[in-house]
Amino acid sequence: MVPGVCLRCGEATQRVFPTHFFPFWGRRSFILQAPLCSLHKDYFRNRSLVFSVGMIASIIPLGVALAVLLAALQTGVLDEKFRVIVGFLGLSSLWFLGWAVVLVYLRVDAIRLSKIRSGKVMLLNVAPEYAEALRVHRQEKMKVELRASSHYLGKVQHWEELMETAGPLADDARRALELAGDIARSFHHDYVGTDHLLIGLGRIEASGAGQVLKNCLLPVKLAEIEVQNITASASTSPNHLPVTPQLKKVMQNAWEEAHARGHSRLGTAHILLGLVRQEEGIGTQILETFGLDLEDVRKQALKYLLDMDIAFFSTSELRPRTPDDQAISEKLPR
User: Fold this and answer.
1) Where are the beta strands (DSSP E) in the chain?
2) Structural contact between residues 28 and 58, judged by C-beta atoms closer than 8 angstroms
3) Which tens digits make up the pLDDT trace of 214-259?
4) Nearest-CA neighbor of 271 among 208, 178, 330, 179?
């Protein structure tokens, strides 16, 4: 969905038109259903027509001039008509350069395709009003998603339900949640809380959260002993382990961190960010017990996510990313 604002002038509109976008460089172009007002509904069509005519008009005279020059060289009449041929060639070159300048102007000044990355189209030179409308549109959509996730997580009672309703999870994040439940059972605790989640994050050393906790010098083995002893073992272990309100809040915080960065899946770094935000949980108490500064942990997790994003885009041209304020995002048709 795109906001009802003209891509060219920013006026309110409810109409969309098939629009042919050209990249600044390269051969790939793209047709998109773009919102345009009645005044600019033919804007892209006319610009494309001028562009095509200009390409033909710039190439034909130069090609004719070169053909005449080659014919003169072959017939040996270059000396007799030297001035005429050179003059014609010079005028043709000037004609070509003139049209080239016009075509470059059409590309630079126009709304054009910047790049396509994994189904998201990015445009340049869109109306500032459209960029602002798109930003507000994204924020509203994100709020709806967050409210929906908070609604479902608020109803979660047991650890198994949390695993089902946590949303799209990265493999390491799913493994960390599974470990949290296994650790709670192995310690004979009758709940799953932020303390078990912290140990689960720390055990997966190859994950983002595992690397951050290792860099912050968290002794995971000692932390496990602390978690095991901080809560008395239950006489009986329930079939369905309940989750603490703090753990549910951590997951909500994690999704907020992921959405704020345009990430569609939850990773261990997001969960760690959500955990350090929930200062009331036992997990943060464990971190402070071993001398870790919560703000330092947060900075390390943010740095990890930033480094991952940089590597994500530098290694491939087709990667998902939320477009900036001068872009439009649409799924490519299959």
Assistant:
1) 16-21, 30-35, 112-117, 120-124
2) no
3) 999 999 999 999 998 888 887 676 778 898 889 988 988 898 888 8
4) 208
pTM for this prediction: 0.55
The span from the CA of 259 to the CA of 313, in Å, is 18
Q: CA angle at residue 226 from 271 to 257, to 5 degrees?
A: 10
- pLDDT at position 315 is 44
Q: Which of 185, 243, 174, 184 is nearest to 207 (CA)?
A: 174
CATH of 132-314, one of 1.20.1640.10, 3.40.50.2300, 1.25.40.10, 1.10.1780.10: 1.10.1780.10
Residue spans per domain, the chain: 16-125, 132-314
Question: What digits encode the pLDDT tens for the residues 71-104?
Answer: 766 666 556 566 666 676 777 777 777 777 776 7
If DSSP codes are grouped into helix, strand and coil, which group holds residue 16? strand
